Amino acid sequence: DTSGADGVTFSRWSLMLCALFIFLEVSKQNVVYAILTFNHGSYPIDSASLVVAAEMLKLVFSAVMMGRHMMIAGVSVRLVVSRMSLLFAVPAAMYVVTNNLYLYALNFVTPTVWTLLSQSRIVMTALVYRALFGRPISALRWMALLALTLGVTLSQLSGDLTGVAVTPYAFLVCLFSSAVSVGTSIYVESLLKSHPASFYEQQVQLYLFGFVGALAYWVYSSGQPAGLLLASTLAALQAAPPLVVQLVWASVALTGIGGIVVAAIIKQLDNLAKIFSVALAIVFIGVSGVILFPDSVATLSVPFCFGAMLIVSSTVVYSLDRVPVTTCDCL
Questions:
Q1: Ramachandran sector of residue 266 (left: φ over 0; alpha: ψ -120 to 50; beta: rest)
Q2: How far is CA 294 from CA 147, 286, 290, 318, in A?
Q3: Which of 23, 28, 34, 133 could in theory staple to 254 by disulfide, Cβ–Cβ 3.0 to 4.6 A?
């Protein structure tokens, strides 16, 4: 194992988790694109229902693994119940807030501008680590983070920015949304690393509240009773082509497994490792799209290519900058 300049320990296991997440994320995005391709550009069911299904899958898987851990370690049900906490409900509430902030912000800015402004989360996350937790971040790593911010922005850039003006109010809304997102991510990391419950106990609590929140939002946004909504969703799946249905379930499985892997990355490493993994996944998604869907994605844009080079180079620089440390006040 090796220790980075910020005191985070890298191991083969943690690097395997990052690689697994990238594979799952690339697979999920290509499956989603395949659904749109084979279903005439639309989802066969409401996207909110896919979130509910993914949260339920994560909850069931985590519950099974927790039960297995309880039997092996001899942990009693009473102890598990005593370690349950409403602290795990906070991320679910914050995710609802950030989703609504995104929809609200689109009243003032285009999705392209939102993409540009939201990349402030990368540097903001590092600033929180440095200012609040005293985590040492070398000058070289700051340069890598800035390069990553620019690279992700270029790789996701789409649309025409000509004539687009961002008002101070719109900028503040986007900045506040980024701050809430970063705060939630840091909060989850702190909770996973400090709470006495086992990893799968933590996951059960996170996904229980996440499932309840996703279900409530699904029902609320549709304006239909839960039973009628479920029946109409199942009917829509039955009417869809078999291949599309298989792809839908594949996307749910990939989303669910990916969510658990992300939690493991945050617990083993930190949110910056997750951010770099997401950025690398963007590169592989773009390249794989050209290979798997040549008729729809003919070429990679010049901004994407520059962005991809910045992402890869910044990741290499960030990971190779290893300065020995004796103490660490990080999470």
A1: alpha
A2: 29, 11, 5, 33
A3: 28
123: left (phi over 0), alpha (psi -120 to 50) or beta: alpha
User: Residue 66 above 50 pLDDT?
Assistant: yes
SS3 label, residue 57: helix
Q: How far apart are CA 110 and CA 100, in angstroms?
A: 15
CA dihedral in degrees (310, 315, 316, 320; nearest 10)?
140
Instruction: Note the pLDDT of residue 187.
Output: 94
- Average model confidence (pLDDT) for the chain? 86
As a whole number of angstroms, the distance between CA 60 and CA 186 comes to: 25
Q: Tens of pLDDT along 121-151?
A: 999 999 999 888 888 888 999 999 999 999 9
Helix, strand or coil, per DSSP, at residue 244: helix
Short-list 88, 83, 14, 84, CA closest to 261: 14
pLDDT at 206 over 80: yes
| Kind of pairing between the strands at 2-3 and 9-10 | antiparallel
Q: Is 44 in a helix, a strand, or coil? A: coil
3-state secondary structure of 127: helix
Q: How far apart are CA 325 and CA 129, in angstroms?
A: 16
Distance CA 125, CA 272 (A): 7
Find out whether 190 and 247 touch, Cβ atoms under 8 Å. Answer: no
Task: Name which of 261, 228, 189, 253 is nearest 60 in CA terms.
Answer: 253
Residue 295 token pair: 């008729």
| Residue 326 confidence (pLDDT) above 50 | no
pLDDT digits (tens, 9 = 90+) for 6-47: 545 557 888 899 999 999 999 999 999 999 889 988 889 988
The C-alpha atoms of residue 195 and residue 31 are separated, in whole angstroms, by: 35
Rounded to whole angstroms, how far apart are CA atoms 35 and 42? 8
pTM of the model: 0.85
Paired tokens of 53: 């299904």
For position 324, what pLDDT does the model report?
44
